[in-house]
Prior knowledge:
The chain is of the alpha/beta class. It contains 28 helices and 27 strands.
Amino acid sequence: MNRLSRFGHRFGLGRAIGLMLLFVFLAIRYWDPAPLQELRLRSFDLYQLMRPRVTQERPVAIVDIDEQSLRAYGQWPWARTRVADLINRLTNLQSAAIGFDIVFSEPDRLSPAVAAGSFANLDDATRAKLEALPSNDDVLAAAIRKSRVVLGQSGFAAGLNQGDTGSMPRSSIAWRPLDPSPYLITFPDLLRNVAVLERASAGRGLFSIAPERDGIVRRVPIVMVAGGEIVPALSLDLLRVGLGALAFRINTDELGVVSVEKLPLRPPLITIPTDKNGKVWIHFSPHERDIYVSAKDVLEGTVAPDRIAGKLVLVGTSAVGLLDIKTTPVDPAMPGVEIHAQLLEAVLTGSTLSYPGYAIGAELVAAFLVGIAIVILAPMIGALPLLLLGAGVGAGLAAISWMVFQQQNILIDVTFPLMSSFGVYVALVFVNYLREQVDRQRIRSAFGQYLSPTLVEQLAQNPDKLVLGGEERTMTIMFSDVRGFTTISESFKDDPQGLTNLMNRLLTPMSNAIHARNGTIDKYMGDAIMAFWNAPLDDLNHEANACDAALDMLERLDALNAERKQDAEASGKPFIQIKIGIGINTGRVTVGNMGSDMRFQYTVLGDSVNLASRIEGQTKSYGVPILIGARTAEAIKDKFAIVEIDFITVKGKTEPEVVYTVLGRKEMAASTEFEGVRASMHQLLARYRAQDWRGAIKAAQACRVGNGLFHLDGVADLYEERIQAFEQNPPPPDWNGVFALQTK
């Protein structure tokens, strides 16, 4: 033990904290939470901004359904015959292959037969001629069949019914040695083109793009699972058709997908590195206007042949109104079709990026070595020399990462080693400061016995708040009081210390229930508690938290009564059960430091506070443990089992208020027993306010059915007493059901 103590003293608290923090960082990197991923992705974005892809080759062209094309030929979708003309023009211009970043999922509504059925006054001969003409889809299919066309498809959530797809062409995808399906992006269903077009095409591929969490497209899946089968991306199948390949093969290992390569394995060899989910890191170039050709120019025959000849052609749109705009690391608004084009360019020029598995190992090793060096050297050389040394090491790591990116298109994250080493450095430098904070924390703990911990911390951070004044805000206020406290206190008349102990046993769990749900205790008033929510810190669910705290208080009170009953039986003393009433109300109040210049308290003032107090006082009249105001009820009606109790004016107020009781949480609200009690109570109120006294009495009796669970006997008793009085002295004919309470 002495040796261990001496070793700990020599090793030092700072080193121990630094070493522990280093292993925490390594564990976080292994876990790889979303914020760490986003930091890494942002660093990769910076690399692309500093060095976007530059290529002299232009193997891809985009035929753009742009604004001028829409002005010339009308809104999209165009007639399929015009699309057929576009394909014929591109085929005549000797395009290598044509891919559509568009899906033709429904038959053309402009086909002659469809048009013939839409004209009411068409003569029979003309109608027959139109119906005899081939459909626009057949015309487009004929053009597709004569060319090398890859049709676009889209992954879909679920529920599509596109008829019989059993005879549709299958995708040209193989894999080895392990099935990649569990690792690939999966769509439950597949949005296809109409069958006649799919059968005529040379290929089909998904144009679905999955941005990262921040909406930026960095990786594009080139193989996916849709409708239960592995399918290629549009760009991948266009590449297959354009190169005359038979298929593409997915290479896998035990961690997922490794790469996708062209079959057969003969020149030109194409191997595309992917991440484990079959997505390709694209090395983007800025928006490339010179690869765009207007669809209008193609249809009118004014495009230069060398803009199309021998190229992979993608047909898509840059028109803003067609909503195919994406964000990339180098451009905030890039047409989606250009992302496919940039992927094809990167593949054909060998400039795709990769983030290999060994890069993660390199990041962990670098973080560990730098962190260990800081832990060892920090006590020896001081904070400033260590900071300078660390800056030099960080610059070296960044230079290596940049060089690997620039020369080999490999991504290695330098942010994690820098972040972890800086974290260890900060922990070591400020260990003495942390020790000083221990004393301050003791002070906070002492004051925390009297004030809300959140308020204590807020005052510690902002001493200027220790001034008189307040702010107006919407808050929820609670008053809680012990029923029959006089009787309880009389039983302790010879043991005042016992009464104090009892109140401590009661107020402690009640206070814990309030604090556990973000409540602030304003004050204790003997056996009563005043608390509030939504101050000093914002609480978006203050109404629900207050009601949940009230139910928790009742549950804790039941546990306390059970303990006290056992204690009483063991000691042979009489047992008096403790019951409480809780009133809750929501409204605009003033909250802040109130009092005098010499002494003040953080509290709330306002009419809503007074109403909460009055509502609490009526819990004994209705025989329910909880009563809440209308604004509180409106906010929690979908989260708790609540029942309207009465429409009243409390003593000292003229405006009526609807009051409710809270019987349980959401699971109780879904029970059939609660639905029955709520319906009975609704019937009671309706009959009562309609002055149907006999019907109200009958409904009151029905409310007693759930007594053991719902505590509504007192409500039924109260209404029966009122009805007896009203039968003797009926209310006026225009009575609106409001009952004016005469007691607090």
